[in-house]
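Hey team,

Filing this mostly as a record. A colleague (T.K.) asked me to run one chain through the structure pipeline before their review meeting, and I want the input and output archived in the tracker in case anyone asks later how it was produced. No errors, nothing strange. Just documentation.

Input sequence:
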Amino acid sequence: MRRQALLAWVLCCCTSLRLHAAVLSLTGRVVDENEAPVRGARVTARPAANPAATGWEAQTSPTGDFALTLPQPGDYLLDAEREGYYALKNRAVHFAGPQEIVLTLNAVREVFQSENVNAETSPLDLAETQNQQTLTGTEVNNIPYANSHSLRNALQLMPDIIQDPGGSLHINGSSENQVQYVLNGFNLTNPISGQFQTLLAVEGIRSIDLASGRYSPELGKGTAGVLAINTQNGTDSLHYTATDFIPGLDIQQGARLGNWYPRFGVTGPILRKRAWFADTVDFEYTQSFITGLPAGQNTRSGFAGSNLLHTQINITRGNILFTDFLVNADNEGRVGLGPLDPVSTTSQINTRQYFGSVKDQVYLGRGVLLELGYAHNASSTTRTPEGPSLYVIAPSGDSGNYFVHSTQGASRDQAIGNVYLPQFQWAGLHSFKAGFDADTLSYTGGFRRTGYQVLGLAGELLSQTIFGAPASFRTSDTEMSWYIVDSWRLSRQLQLHIGVRQDWDRRISDFAWSPRASFSWSPWTSGHTRISGGYAMTHDVVTLDILSRPLDQTAFTTTYDANGPTGPPAPTTFAIPAPIVLPRATNWNLNVDHQVSAHVYVSARYLRRRGTDGFAFVNTLDPSALPSLLPVPNTAAAGVYELTNLRRDDYDSAQLSIRQTFSGQYEWMASYTRSRALTNAVLDPNTAQPLQILPSQVAMPWDAPNHFLAWAYLPLPRKNWAVSILSNYRSGFPFSVRDETGVISGAVNSYRYPHTFDLNLAIERMITLCGYRFALRGGVDNLTNSRNPTAVNNVIGSPQYLQFFGYEGRHFVVRIRFFGRATGK
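Output structure:
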């Protein structure tokens, strides 16, 4: 009897403990307006009787789940915050026993300015251990950057990104092909060149995230970082916009149709509370004027368009399907027109791109989330010169017809998989994630190059390069990668991010390991200061243009003197010997972020990247040849260029920035970056890959030691009026000077363009007309009329030696936006 009584007492105690533990546990999920889980959200509970007291905090898992351990039953106020979402504040909850709640966060969207929307920025997020900068879709559409229809130009609103005169992007001192470009989780990078060549309407952008330095192992294939583009989702309410739908008028050299960039967007439900869509359309008609050329020969025009359809279907509450379908078309005439390059030297370039993806997200229960996805990306490009004549490179400028006639097609099939495992406690809270990425790539090329001549200062023929029989080829490659990462929350104030990634490339048979480690530490319990940093080894992929070089045409160069040819034509060939390894970089990064007040944030960032094993073609028959700026360096002897891993790139930067947000969409940001970008490879803009190696490092052609960027979108005293400002200053890019034969004279990149400065100002008025809402904007780009040249004559002895061309000039801009019915939300 005594034994039975003791057993009953033990069971009663255990039951009491279980009930007590259950009472103290408040669980729930954080989802967006379409019931998709929101990972990494900060959920805080505070006593309703004392809201100023320090609360109890939890962070959502990838499934959106959270669990809060509370001291006792009672009334509490819940907050939920995540960057990119409107903060949920003071949600009243009466906690009396075991219960599960659902908190909904609405994604930040561009809204009509007169609406009273407060998009509070979340406090510093300890869970964010990556070095990441985010540009919201609202900022993309509010700030007056040049050619504000262009997503590529919008990227310059990030302090880490600059553009060269040719439009190429350089992120943290890198080449454009050293970064991976991602659309809604899938690789959008051009498989041939490794560049970002996709058109997207800026009105359909939700956010742009740039991860560099240290970043998670799930992101890879770019030594300098990953640029992730996230597009808008639809909701149960129908929204539609139209921008610049009325064509402009250009009065330069007579009245004519000016640049016209109409964009249209519509989002809404397919089936309410179950399926939604977002569709954005972008059309572009451009007509550019080039200063320094005669009338009728100083314009170039083009037509382009894109359409992106994004859908979300909630098959069940735990099974969500996402799809994307993108079409691009671009027809550009007189490409290459410039102050030193007349119409005859230009080309017609036509580009097409088709992208489709599907991703299934399944919640398997017990904290397990599985993602599987597939994407197909296909592109084609044709380049047609103005005629069949030889291209002529002369000290006073180029003439003849460009020498490249080509047809290129490429595709990528990508499969991805990610699994989020249950969180567990062991010396802190662990959250594991693992996944894989498999790509198959193909490239079909056809080239019919003619040739080019090099003339001296007196107009005499110095050399002639003729290309052999036309080349037609097909090449392919396969890439595989896997990763595993642990987000380890040791305490409320310290979090670690530890993982590893492995990449494999079939064509060069190389396995590359990428260890990653980072931390995020809040030294004070207030959470207003965050110190974060880490290390990452990253790798570049092998672009298909590198793999195809040995299959391409052979160049034959003949040199001349006063008596004629100095010898027989010398061939130039390319080869890829074994072994070759994937280029790699070691990245070190340290950030200090501080929240000065409720809406003011300051940050200091340091980034150090050392790139090794980079690709460069080197002439094995004459590796110490003087560097040249010709498409194929002139030589009287045969050249055999082999692919090597001899390229070395260094980048260092220190950045200070400050940002303040206000209610609605108003905010301002200012940053200063001091950096240096060095390389030992001669980077010639005429060639896709470096062709020579130097004994020491020199400044890259896009090195900009000083860069100051500031922008603001602020209200004016009068209601429904706002002012938008952009100020952008940077050091001039370096360049080399050459003699009449193309050989660089003196140190490589030892000269610089003048500094560039842009001050753009726009005034915007929100109006309601016939029950519909409009935003009318007028402004000036380059208000100070800074010259900002884009070309220079760099041939020693030329009458125009060191004369700069391509001045930017002042531009007046107008924008009209349509937001739908005034009663819409």
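Quick notes for T.K.: The radius of gyration is 29 Å. The chain has four helices and 53 strands.
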